[in-house]
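debug: dumping io for the single-chain case to check the tokenizer round-trip. Nothing else runs in this session.
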Amino acid sequence: LDSSRIESHTQFVEAILGTTVTMMFEATGQDLQYVWYKDGTVLDDDGRIQGSKTAQMTITEASNADQSIYQ
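debug: decoded output
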């Protein structure tokens, strides 16, 4: 049995253009692997996105293109 579960997560974030946005979640279980999605597409770290494979992801210099559903 896999007893992994998400304990808490960022519900809603409102950002000012050009600022830094941080989203996070807390999970319990063994051998956890983290992956962030934007509109169902897996995210990768780049010049503005950091932590896409961790429990805390940061987007710097938020823009209109960042408006989305993140999971």
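debug: round-trip ok. The chain is about 0% helix and 30% strand.
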